[in-house]
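Sequence in, structure out. Go.
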Amino acid sequence: MIKQKPIIEMKDITVLFPGVCALDKVSFELLPGEIHILLGENGAGKSTLVKVLSGVNKPASGTVYLQGQEVSFTNTKEAIDAGVAIVYQELNLVPHMTVAENIFLGREPQKNGVLSWKKLYQNAQKVLDNLGVKLDVRARLDSLSVAQNQMVEIAKSVSRDVKVLIMDEPTSSLTNKEIEDLFRILLDLKEKGVGIVYISHRFEEIKQIGDRATIMRDGKFIDTVQVAEKSVDEMISLMVGRQLKDMFPKEKVQIGEVLFEARNIVTKDKIKDCSVHVRAGEILGIGGLMGSGRTELARAIIGADQVETGEFILEGNTINLKSPMAALQQGICLLPEDRKHHGLVLGMDVGDNITLANLKSTLKLGLINRKNESAVGQEYVHKLSIKTPSLKQKVKYLSGGNQQKVVIAKWLLADGKVMIFDEPTRGIDVGAKVEIYKIMTELVKKGMGVIMISSELPELINMSDRIVVMCEGKITGELSKQEVTQEKIMRYATGG
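Output:
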């Protein structure tokens, strides 16, 4: 059998950031028609590596070859023109423009120097048809779902005769049906000889579509393996450098009286007469499909969305939760699904983000005392094992798992009574997941109530003491620890 020549070769790539070596002589290769998984914990260097390949990061040393020719992209346009495209978690599209305009942005067909709308729509339709994607080429992107926007991003790349497609956590916000559609497209591109670099922490996906996996740890290359030949446990062990014997470190905690109750909650657009309660020392899981109303219920509880009717009861007393500030004052905190936009101030440093919700802890004579602020920040960086060069590091430069821990630190400092986690482990690696689970366990051991919204059924089943399931804005079922199964959750989640 003739060995294929790599479409991409990266040799001894080193990237230096202030205070940290992000990549240390990492080598990587991609074959034509291969789906090559990049595996590693948050902060392992996966995103940095693909940013070198796509022209975002400039390596301090090392060489990149594309189809045997040495290349050195200085920006993403050069990479795209050469056939290397990347689809980030945060899509790079223009929401107020149409599907067709986004696909051919900057390359619009013209006739006599004037934009030809007819040709634009025809060309866009041809690209979508070749991908098997059904979308209205005249639809504005802000009217489409996340999955549909992602298809537009892929169509934009394919329209440029892409040779290498990089996907960074592409399924983190997709439903199962949308994931199936995405995989169909990726497998079709693979058949056409496109090399695909796929970053994911979801091992069921990796096993389903991956050919090889390159494993990284702490900015270093660890190994490249055949996915079919390695078990999930073996790949996890290579990722974290140790055996993760207990993926779900749930401890038996004495559950007390009802701590908080949301009773007969109705909102204008989504929530229809929902009632939930959580006890002291309990992790209450909330399941359901995307769009079921889980996040909207959490937003109603903390006063981010207006409640038309219903009441909230904390420790036996009716309370007013008309705003997030009111919820915070009562000790009710939400770790939002979208940590980057709703949980953090990305332009501020780690220390400032940690103390943001409880500035009183840093005050001296009514003014913020930087010494106090630094002491508080260091305490929580140590408590939660947040990996950062310093408290002065901009939080936007941290990995996803460490960003999530900064959000948790902020709310722990706020000294809450009820903590709502909305998709707490989305987009973070297996090692960071275990650390988040341990934090949840510590919270309930202190007598707090934890509400965990999750789309990951193993997480929901193994970490919850009790689960309620939502469908179309209503509570459709409740399951105890003893009676819960994936099948029962899905039956309630689909309205059964």
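Check: The chain has a mean pLDDT of 87. The first helix runs from residue 46 to 53.
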